[in-house]
Design brief:
The complex is a heterodimer. Chain A is of the alpha/beta class. In chain A, 41% of the residues lie in helices and 13% in strands. A six-stranded parallel sheet of chain A has the order 3-2-1-4-5-6, sandwiched between helices. The radius of gyration of chain A is 17 Å and the shape is globular.
């Protein structure tokens, strides 16, 4: 299954949904879309506005691939469960976000294909990239996240110092 | 559990909340409560106070400030932790100046090169200030620390 999700932003992300709807007949997988506040109603793909976070997490865990805006929540969850994720950043120029920070996230993650994080910058690249990832990917086993371990340690030390 | 050593976890729903949940282990030795916004995708969670999104109306902000004051009066947190967004600003100022809480702020991993508005607002009063991307260090002062990120 492929799960498509575009986050909480009230601006929606029609550009991604339209393209996914258009290429759906060429993708040999079942797809589900959490469209958020997007206005576009996909014709070829099952969709809903929102499900509670724990339900969305179940969709992610069941997926072979997640296609998403560059939202850090979805990226972190995919990393945690070892699910491949393909990112198309929201752009300010198209009224999809208040700034271009999703572009910065995408650029920062560009060289992480080894961890099953894939980036495209234009919706026209989606079809080719999705098919390529479905064909080629080898399952990535999530390893202990060093950044997380260090954050936990730093925060715990501070709490202990403060409260003891 | 030490009831007099409570921690308040403050964040918007979505990515900010997922970041807090990924770090929940750091707080589990102490009693804690959540303070977040009610949104369509919000699941119900125990120990949680919900507010209306400040960014959506000035009335939400005014009502929210009163509610934060009431919650802190009831819960008496000793430490506040936040990953943003702007819900942290009134919470941190009320916590710091009216309840003498210590403050931990983790800049959201969405901020790679540029500080968030919330980060800039709370930097001065925060006791432990962490960023998740190294290039962001030079955008803040010497207090900011980088030890790694969740992504």
């Amino acid at each position: 299954m492929i799960f498509v999700t575009v986050g909480n932003d009230f601006r929606g992300f029609d550009r991604l949904l339209k393209k996914m709807d258009e290429i759906a007949p060429h993708i040999p997988r079942e797809m589900v879309i959490q469209k958020g506040y997007s206005r576009y109603l996909p014709k070829n793909i099952e969709h809903f506005d929102f499900v509670p976070m724990n339900k969305a997490i179940e969709y992610i865990q069941k997926s072979e691939l997640v296609v998403s805006h560059a939202g850090i929540g979805t990226i972190i969850l995919c990393k945690e469960y070892g699910i491949p994720i393909l990112i198309l950043p929201r752009r300010k120029a198209y009224g999809e976000h208040m700034n271009d920070h999703q572009l910065e996230i995408a650029q920062a993650l560009e060289k992480r294909e080894g961890e099953n994080i894939y980036v495209v910058y234009g919706e026209d690249q989606l079809e080719e990239k999705i098919l390529k990832v479905l064909m080629e990917r080898t399952r990535y086993t999530p390893t202990e996240n060093i950044g997380r371990v260090n954050l936990l340690r730093t925060i715990k030390e501070f709490i202990k110092r403060t409260l003891s | 559990m030490k009831p007099d050593k409570k921690i308040g976890l403050i964040c918007s729903p979505g990515g900010h909340l997922i970041e807090v949940l990924r770090l929940l282990e750091a707080f589990e030795d102490y009693p804690f409560f959540f303070l977040t916004y009610k949104e369509k995708a919000t699941s119900s969670r125990k120990n949680t106070y919900y507010m209306m999104n400040f960014a959506k109306s000035p009335f939400n902000l005014i009502f929210g400030i009163l509610k934060i004051f009431y919650i802190f009066l009831k819960e008496r947190p000793k430490i506040l932790f936040s990953t943003g967004a702007e819900i942290a600003i009134p919470s941190f100022y009320i916590g710091k100046f009216l309840f003498h809480t210590k403050l931990i702020y983790l800049e959201c991993s969405a901020q790679v090169y540029h500080p968030s508005l919330t980060g800039r607002w709370v930097y001065r009063i925060t006791d432990l200030f962490l960023v998740q991307w190294e290039p962001l260090l030079k955008q803040y002062g010497p207090k900011a620390k980088y030890v790694g990120g969740l992504i």
